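worker-03 picked up job from queue 'complexes'. Input manifest follows; two sequence lines, order preserved.
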Amino acid sequence: MTASAASEPMAAPSGGEPAVRLEGVSRWYGNVVAVNEISFDLEAGVTGLLGPNGAGKSTLLHLMAGFLAPSAGSVKVRGRAAFGDPAIYHDIGLVPEREAVYPFLSGREFVEANARLQGVPDPRAATARAIEQVDLVDAQDRSLGTYSKGMRQRAKVAAALVHDPRVLLLDEPFNGMDPRQRIHTMTLLRELAAQGRTILFSSHILEEVERVADRILVVIAGRLAASGDFRAIRRLMTDRPHTFTVRSSDDRALASVLLGEPAVTGVTLDDGLLVVRAADFGAFSRAVARDARTAGISLFEVQPTDESLESVFSYLVRG
Amino acid sequence: MNRVVASITLRQLLSRRRTLLLVLLGALLLVVALVRRLSGMSDGTDTSFTADLLDHLGIAVVMPLVALLFGTGALGAELEEGTAIYLLAKPVSRLNIALTKYLVALGCSLLLSCVPILLAAFLSGGQDVAGVALGFTVAAAIGAAVYCTIFLALSLVTSRAFIFGLAYVLVWESFLAGLLPGIRTLSVREQTLALAKAIGDIPDSIFKADLAVGTAAVAAALIAVAAMVIVARRIRRIEITGETA
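worker-03 finished. Artifact:
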């Protein structure tokens, strides 16, 4: 499945330019098309950027970060062309995927250097705040060369946050973090989004995206395959029946009733587990409650089994 | 000049292991000069030995190699390693970043090439060595400035700047410029020697240069300006790609 699965556009700009806008953006390297005719807007909230390896995620992020010029189309950050305008970096905080840092700088020196380069009025206070945000206070005076991968990632996140940017672009930000650091950083991103910041992060771990992102962008072979809330995207995939597991006081009776529903395309009872396939998510949701009530059956659980981001991503990528 | 960029660049350049090799290279110049003095080979009047030492080891080897490592390492190495992204993703003009890095590379080059040349001149000694010391030291500073622009520009054009730079120094400067008089004008080494002779007012009996000082000065200026134009153009247009497309 490709562009046909594209769902509703990202949140509409709340007056004026969106935080990030891509219009008809293509980028090619010689004969290789890395990004092909992509358009979307990013507004406040967390957006997850997904795609198989080599799909064009990093190219997209680098286009938005002003490190690549689009071969066609335009990339704007808060209304300004991203490439060739250093002033956009007042608004952008960037966590690159590459691990390289300055090994001779301490974590504090690194973050403070970023604050000073951003022209932050009180770089020391901003540094202390950012380091606290990423929970790196205890290690702040150690050189980055001695940091674990997860600690370096947090230092990079602190450096990206130190000037309090409106837009955060993060390329695989959770790489190398242990579960506790991961949860801490996810919570931090959620808090920043709640404060109105626009956050885009790429990840190849769907569970991370599912936990943090309000919306997703799925890039496949350089094209935008889908964007929006992944559950909404799933519901738009009408060519793929939705699967539910149902537990009730009488699964067998409920199964026979549901077979008469137009929205239901199949029912199986496997090892006492009632599995229902439905063409229309909304119609089935209404029908199952109504039919159970009419038949005097108590419903204990109706669980969609392929509404996870993993299922959606799998459908989009494998077609 | 951006202080933060300068500070990071300085620490980065001085923290590399290669820098130790450059210190040793400068020390080698001093050791040769010292051995010359202590061995009694110098009768106190042979200034031409000092000039030859500064020419063949100072200007031909120490100065270009020091400038090569610092010139290519200041920005090109950062782009290769990926740390440049932290500087380029800031509201600081790219030209400012490049010029700052150039000045730091030049400062380091002056420290590790001009200072040893100056000290070696006096250690080796000779009659009226002050003129030789002054001429070679000031000319080495000018030569280092030209080399640094060349190598900085090269590092923005190719990821193999060090290899190409080394080939330029070894093949063009040391070999071809010696073989083919026509291309000496474009040799930074020959320009530096002509400037050293003129600045130090060194007589022919002590040291001869193959280029006229006017030709050398104009050629050096043109090369430096051309290289700086390349730096200015490339740094504005340079793109950074991710690890995966």
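worker-03 released lock.
Chain B has a mean pLDDT of 89.
The two ends of chain B are 34 Å apart (CA to CA).
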